[in-house]
Design brief:
The protein has about 425 residues and is of the alpha/beta class. It has 2 domains: about 130 residues, Aspartate Aminotransferase, domain 1 (Alpha-Beta Complex), CATH 3.90.1150.10; about 250 residues, Type I PLP-dependent aspartate aminotransferase-like (Major domain) (Aspartate Aminotransferase, domain 2, 3-Layer(aba) Sandwich). It contains 14 helices and 17 strands. The strands form 5 sheets. Strands 4-10-9-8-7-5-6 form a 7-stranded mixed β-sheet, sandwiched between helices. Strands 13-14-17-16 form a 4-stranded antiparallel β-sheet, with helices on one face. Strand 7, helix 7 and strand 8 form a beta-alpha-beta unit. Helix 11 packs parallel to helix 14 and helix 12 packs across helix 14. It is globular and about 75 Å long. The N terminus is likely disordered. The structure holds ligand 7TS. The site of ligand 7TS has 15 residues, from helix 5.
Length: about 425
Amino acid sequence: MLVENKEIVEVSKRIFNIDEIRADFPLLHRTVNGKSLVYLDNAATTQKPNSVIEAIKNYYTFENANIHRGLYFLSELATESFENARLRIKEFINALSVSEIIFVRGATEAINLVATSMYRGGLLNDGDEVILSEMEHHANIVPWQIVAKNNNIKIKVIPIDDDGELILDNLSDFFTEKTKLVSIVHISNTLGTINPVKEIIKTAHDNGVPVLIDGSQAVPHTKVDVQDLDCDFYVFSGHKMFGPTGIGVLYGKTEFLKIMPPYQGGGDMIRTVSFEGTTFNDLPNKFEAGTPNIVGGIGLGAAINYIDSFDNSEIVLHEKGLLDYATERLLEIDGLKIIGTAKMKTPVISFTIDGIHPYDIGTIIDTDGIALRTGHHCTQPIMKRYNLPATSRASFAFYNTKEEIDKLHDGLIKVKRMFS
Ligand code: 7TS
């Protein structure tokens, strides 16, 4: 029976055809400044395929009602669609149960939830230690700084080397009896580095410490299996994986979510309420106070269906081709330096060009319809590590092409000419 199901899934995978894929994304076909758009800011957010746009339209056209409340037809339909999306997410990351999937606003809210709830529940106390890395997004730094009164959680930082790889030789030395969590990024949004999170999780567990993985940049590119990783928490945002904004996921092992107190109070997260006291709902509802982003959840489910319609190895292959080609072409440019040269990378290229400020690069290249990110990418500690005010960043998705990389190359040559 299982074998039969497997065969059906494999047969139904779409052939990886770049023209057909691009046809799925209406926004890729617009013009900007009279030029065809070249969208290279996918680490910030991805464009949305028609199937996601249609799922959102369909929900508001035919299903809109509040969930978990009414016994009437529409409410049950909306509840079913929303809970089906939760099931799709559970399958997508191979969680053990749907009760481990908490809908949140995004990765940022997920990390704030864990920090706040751990602190409130006494799993993290004043004077305790949390291990982060030098390549964290601000979303995985600031919550740990603000959760305790007087900034009382000690943050230990795993450093990075010149290539943008974590220096893990003495990782075991980071752990003391005060260490309560390792919270680390799976793939860096600025450097593209894929971190060896499975090894880090193993070392942390050998020291009796749980691990949160910030998977925001991993889910659009790689297959994630939370049971295989054995992480205790895994967080990501829907909008970076072809889904809508305002929706994201906190995965947590039941053993932790059960003992952690609620993050916010309100409807849906309670079982009974009186002025004398309140009892809380079961997982996952305990962490989902108020009307959730119903359409966001449904849109995220559609995005997962879209990603899953391809064989992941074809996505990885295409993206590796983009990374290699873009690296080669950009390095042809005199004075261009790539920041982040780890052996294991996703298609993200941060770079500087001698004598030209990244903001000038971003602004000028925009006139050619090329969308690049410039700035610190919410990773100021990385900028400090490389002694840079900012970088330009091209980040690719599987709908990007080598022709777009050629346009980026030519656009940068033009920028250089303007400054010579
Ligand atoms: N963690 C990582 C690794 C990220 O790349 C981002 C967003 C976040 C957390 C926060 O995600 P949010 O959806 O909650 O905002 N990264 C970027 C970026 O690279 N450019 O814009 C946002």
